[in-house]
Amino acid sequence: MFPIAFHPIYQHPLPEGHRFPMLKYELLPQQLVFEGTASPSDFYEPEECDLDSVLAIHKPDYVNDLLHLTLHAKAARKIGFPLSKELVQRELIIAQGTITGAQKSFDTKVSFNIAGGTHHAYATHGEAFCLLNDQAIAAQFLLNHKLAKKILIIDLDVHQGNGTAAIFQNNPHVFTFSTHGKTNYPFKKETSDLDIAFDDGATDEEFLHTIASVIPKLIATQKPDFIFYLAGVDILATDKLGKLGCSVEGCKKRDELVFELCSKHQIPVQVSMGGGYSPDIKTIIEAHANTFRAAKDIF
């Protein structure tokens, strides 16, 4: 099928209160194999990302504080997880999973990271459960190694990719596009190259009509030779942290639209799974699994 980054540490080591939403990192691969959407051979276990790749995006003082667990208490609270060596290792592995997937996408057309989508991580700090920005690190890796000249980041999570927007604000080689809930976190938005903020309760029809009219124009004008897609399923009406009104089927149609355009224009794409916080874990798994099913049908 296509390469999927997964490492057992994705589901560890998180405090008790955060373990429910993290169950998806264990259950999603099991579901994909059980139903035949993926086979065990499709999965690869990334190692830790090398520091040169991290430092191409994140500032040395911040990275040093992460590695030595010396973040100021206020900065650590902004992240939301108790800082630990295992947590930092997890973020380094997630980042490498996205880099490796991006490299593989040139041959396979599409790749996935079961985790990732850590778009709230800035160059100088982390926030909202994001320490290192995996797709930003991978995008800069492709540029630095001359594997891509123009990158489009399509962030369709319910939250604005504020860290990603800030990181690439003055980089003409990366175009950042974010759709999100207008009243969702972050309450102070950054400026992406293109932002579309939806009102609370926005339906499938509104969401799909908007992206169907916008993304083809972006591809035509920006002419990207690589796409990073953040496929968060927190746009669902059931999501505890989201305020939009999309259905599971609408979420799947969103993924199909993105993949059909990538396939039509022969643009390789790397997909990080992003958020998903519906109260029923079955809903989260079904919505995420639909993203993989859509890719299998289209590529």
Automatic annotation (TrEMBL):
Q: Which residues form the Histone deacetylase domain?
A: 35-284
UniProt keyword terms in alphabetical order: Hydrolase
User: An example of a Gene Ontology BP annotation on this entry?
Assistant: epigenetic regulation of gene expression
Among its keywords, does the record have Hydrolase?
yes
What the entry lists under CDD domains is as follows:
HDAC_classIV
Which Pfam families does the entry mention? Hist_deacetyl
Q: What InterPro entries does the database record attribute to this sequence?
A: HDAC_classIV, HDACs, His_deacetylse_dom, His_deacetylse_dom_sf, Ureohydrolase_dom_sf
Is Chaperone given among the entry's keywords? no
Q: Would you say which domain of life the source belongs to?
A: Bacteria
Q: Name one GO molecular function term.
A: hydrolase activity
What the entry lists under PANTHER family is as follows:
HISTONE DEACETYLASE 12, HISTONE DEACETYLASE HDAC1-RELATED
Tell me its family.
Answer: Belongs to the histone deacetylase family.
Protein's recorded name: Deacetylase
Q: Identify the species of origin.
A: Flavobacterium fryxellicola
Lineage, broadest ranks:
Bacteria, Pseudomonadati, Bacteroidota, Flavobacteriia, Flavobacteriales
